[in-house]
Amino acid sequence: MATPTKTQTNRAKTEAKILRAAEKVFAQKGFSGTSMDAVAKESGLSKQNILYYFPGKDVLYQAVLENMIDLWLEKMKFNDSPDVSPAEVITDYIRQKIALSRDYPNGSKVFAHEIINGAPVLKPYLMEHLKPAFEKDIVLIERWVDAGLIRPIDPKHLFFTIWASTQTYADFSVQIQLLLGKNKLEQEDFDQAADFLCQFVLNALNAQH
């Protein structure tokens, strides 16, 4: 793979900066309440600069959503190496998912809102990118079940449960903060959540390290 040029690197950094700003504004104001002026203000860039990279709110919104899926797929690929135990794979998966909730809470909220509304923008991308990876991971879990490495379960609902329980720390962070008596969730909160969810899921699967 060729080394990125300085221009390519700078472009990638600028696009990432715009996407992070857009995540925050879309999460706070929704699609209809978001303006490119607001994204420009949040990013510290000019509106003209924003439009150079993303020539319209629709384009920017779709880029935010697709970026979240890409991050999801990049961070949480199941390791199908025979040298790695199911417990290790699942533990890494849960911790990576919690890390995404910690690092991209606004992007997660934008994604959740899109899904709640029927995924009108994201549906084709989900079918093209997420579904194949999902089906591949299901096959791996079924192999583990057949080999007696974990308790027989429905792999699809295992994933749905992990997604729901990890994304709640982003999508419903305010509720968790209120109940914990905190102004914001801290690293120790995410660590405790990951530890609990790993133990909970591994015990349910009877998966041993």
Describe the structure.
The chain is an all-alpha fold. The protein has two domains: 1-55, Arc Repressor Mutant, subunit A (Orthogonal Bundle); 64-205, Tetracycline Repressor, domain 2, CATH 1.10.357.10. The chain has helices spanning 6-33, 36-43, 47-53, 57-75, 86-103, 105-116, 123-146, 155-171, 173-180, 187-205. The model has no long low-confidence stretch (mean pLDDT 93).
Map the helices and strands.
Layout: H1 6-33, H2 36-43, H3 47-53, H4 57-75, H5 86-103, H6 105-116, H7 123-146, H8 155-171, H9 173-180, H10 187-205
Helix pairs in contact: 1-2, 1-4, 1-6, 2-3, 4-7, 5-8, 5-10, 6-8, 8-10
Share of residues in helices:
over 70%
Largest sheet: none
Q: Oligomeric state of the chains?
A: single chain
Number of helices: 10
Which CATH class of the largest domain?
Mainly Alpha
- The rounded Rg comes to 19 Å
Global outline:
globular
Poorly predicted sequence stretches spanning 5 or more consecutive residues? none
> How do the SSEs run, as a string of H and E?
HHHHHHHHHH
**Into how many domains do the coordinates divide?**
2
Q: Which strand-content bin applies to the residues?
A: under 5%
The CATH topology of the largest domain corresponds to Tetracycline Repressor, domain 2
